[in-house]
Amino acid sequence: MMLRGNVRGNHSNDRAISKSNIEKILRAGSLAPSVGFSQPWEFVVNQK
User: Fold this and answer.
1) CB 29 within 8 A of CB 43
2) d(CA 21, CA 27)
3) pLDDT reading at 33 higher than 80
4) pTM for the full model?
5) CA 41 – CA 8 distance, rounded (Å)
């Protein structure tokens, strides 16, 4: 427990993510396995 690190996703910064990287992330997410091949994915990209 003493060496456990924080794995939450609350460490953000102001660096922009390129459009091509966002597309790669969305493509990978849409190809993720789902129960019964139902693919109930809904993605939201929020840009400032």
Assistant:
1) yes
2) 10
3) yes
4) 0.60
5) 22
**pLDDT classification of 7: cutoffs 50, 70, 90:** low
Q: Is the pLDDT of residue 24 over 90?
A: yes
Mean of per-residue pLDDT scores for the chain: 82
11 to each of 7, 32, 36, 38, 48, how far by Cα in Å? Answer: 9, 24, 34, 32, 17
Answer yes or no: are the C-beta atoms of 6 and 12 closer than 8 Å.
no
Q: Are residues 24 and 7 in contact, defined by beta-carbon separation less than 8 angstroms? A: no
Long-range contact pairs involving 14-17 (C-beta distance under 8 Å, separation at least 24): none
